[in-house]
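Write out the 3D structure for:
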Amino acid sequence: MSTEVEIKFVVKPQVKSQLEVLLADYVIIEQAIKPLSNTYFDTTTSQFRQFDFGLRTRKSLDFAEQTIKTAGIVRGGLHQRPEYNLPLQGDVPTLADFPAEIWPSGADIGQLQADLVDLFTTDFERTMWLIQLPNKAEIEVVFDQGMARSGEQSYPICEIELELVRGEVDDLFTLAQQISQLGNVRLGNVSKAKRGYQLAGLYTPKIKPLTLLMPAVDSESLADIFVNTLTQSYAHWQHHEQQYLETQDISALVEVVAAVALIQQTLQSYIDILPEINFKHTELDWLLQQLSAVGSASQLQQVMINNSQLIAKFPEHKRITKELQALQNRFVDFTAIDGLFNSPRYAGIMLSLSQLLSHGLSGVKLDTANVLAFANIHLQKSWQSVLDSVLSAPVLSADDYLAVQAKLKQNLLIGLCFSHHYAADCRDKFRLPWLDILQGIDDLAVLQILMGVATQQSEAIATQINKILIRKQRSLLDALEQTRLQALTMRPYWTEE
């Protein structure tokens, strides 16, 4: 049994020649090019997926092997997964050859063997370099290019994998950072196997809201919360990045922004007690700025999905609907987002966070302050900044609500990380009205976009549209004001005894 420690990149084909130039600066211990054919197996009832195992055969010109990869750890793009490789006789794995201790309790090996079916194949050419770094660390670098197939379905494979052979994990990141600067390189979190399951119709990735699963309160520390928040947010980010690139669904991009914002807020919250963390917060500021139009694009999408009846009241509503669709495309252009996700600066951010997570907190000193005390201080500080804003004024306009949106989001983000430390009924009673207000502010932003579209119409049409929108805005502001004034009278849950 061995444990792979590797970093994977999804790349464009032209990167290969650039990679060859980069690696020429290192001592190349070994180099080879060979065709590889992998076939992935499971049972008719997907038992291996339920075990979180991967089962495959691999054949090349001079060898054939069978492999089981058991459940491992993927933290921030760094893959660590135990694997068992054995010689293969024939075309189908022989499960009895693998060590008995790897199987879950109660597994019937004979029945698993009888139920095996092949799911998909990956055929690709692998170019391999075993290189030595100046500090004598050794890393295997492979460039895989080919196709995955399941029935009549297929998808192209073009990847770089870096596997640590000898040395420290940081040696892996040193080389990875150099490769990331080539451009057209994106940190990958979806294995060939998972893509194959998707191809075979056995796995369907979904867009899902960001939630956090935390350890039990009685056994957790600030370090646990910090690492869990960043790890889960990072995984959420990568999952929805891939989803957007595959589907161009704006909703996936919204979840990317949510994950980046939570990571940024978490790093800012801990900055005073974790000054040793070597991460440039300005890089996340830059990234959020690059994605700043996503909110408007999402709001436009909601306009067209949820407000069709409102738009239908507009004169010439069919033409205006087409204008809204064109406006959405100007807010978020797929080509531009694809370029961003494959840019050197973006890859550098992803790798820096991945390296931070690979260490956990072993390389930094963490204050042993009580978790609840830490949470109370940060929640109160953030809440006071909200109260000091226009949000606590006697009367708010639409512009006032839009101006305070960022501060309110920031406070609710901080609460997300520590919410499990407070009584659910008290916590939710306080949070829910403010979440409703945030939704109302989004609705105000939608109306603002529609008012902007109205200004592009003839005077007569603009007058009719604005009459409809102003009436809608007044109704929304009345509801927001009622909710806000009531919510301001509530005692914050972190001050409860």
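The longest strand covers residues 27-43.
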